[in-house]
Amino acid sequence: DTEVTQTPKHLVMGMTNKKSLKCEQHMGHRAMYWYKQKAKKPPELMFVYSYEKLSINESVPSRFSPECPNSSLLNLHLHALQPEDSALYLCASSQGLSSYEQYFGPGTRLTVT
Amino acid sequence: GEDVEQSLFLSVREGDSSVINCTYTDSSSTYLYWYKQEPGAGLQLLTYIFSNMDMKQDQRLTVLLNKKDKHLSLRIADTQTGDSAIYFCAETVNSGYSTLTFGKGTMLLVSP
Fold first, then answer.
1. What is the per-residue pLDDT for A82?
2. Residue A104 and residue B42: Cβ atoms within 8 Å?
């Protein structure tokens, strides 16, 4: 099973809302990632967790707050977003930080109004 | 620095071979990847090659790596309409973290 699941599939939120994106994998992977992908662009790395600890934060604004409650789950909490934050948010996982196979979820399409 | 370049668009007829090209600049790249993204979907890892290899074949897919020229290609034999998608080339470098640097993606359009 090489499946990474993400919920919700689509999300529309206002600039004053608070919402969360969820990601789950049951492959026993210990590294999990959040990427942001704008239309017609490649994915851009946001955060990396290794063994439930934040390893990399690519200078992401604090209105995005990641959380890794356990080794299978990764959340991205959203608050006071801007319309330019509208994008496809992709979660990925790999066996470890030095593993060469990253598996991606289907993404959450976020629209900020 | 890291930079991965790809041509933006390729159009082929069903049954033909497709060749998608990629160049990279970082000579310390350890793994090079091809990901496929269908409209509205996530990224699917198609194949990858270690930098000390020059070719890898997996069913209809052939990856060629020219390390001297820092050139990577993906050949899809007998291309089908279901192969229409965006194909991303990506690399990781030997930094201890396998963070991916992606190219801008090549849109492959397969016509019947």
1. 96
2. yes
- Pairwise CA distance, residues A109 & A104, whole Å: 14
- For strand A87-94 and strand A10-13, is the pairing parallel, antiparallel, or unpaired? unpaired
Please name the member of A6, A103, A107 whose beta carbon is closest to the beta carbon of B45.
Answer: A103
CB-CB contact of A7 with A107 (8 Å): no
Only one residue has tokens 């979820």, namely A105
Residue in chain B lying closest to A49 (CA): B97
The upper half-sphere exposure of residue A49, i.e. CA atoms within 13 Å in the direction of its Cβ, equals 24
B10 beta partners: B108
Q: What is the mean pLDDT of residues A83-108?
A: 91
Contact of A105 with A91, CB cutoff 8 Å: yes
- B40 pLDDT higher than 70: yes
Partners of A97 on chain B (C-beta within 8 Å) are 96-98
| Residue range B88-100, pLDDT digits in tens | 999 887 666 668 8
Query: What's residue B1's pLDDT?
Result: 47
Per-residue pLDDT of B55-75, as tens digits, reads 999 999 999 999 999 999 999
Q: List all residues 6 or more positions away from A75 whose beta carbon is below 8 Å from its beta carbon.
A: A20, A21, A22, A23, A66, A67, A68, A69
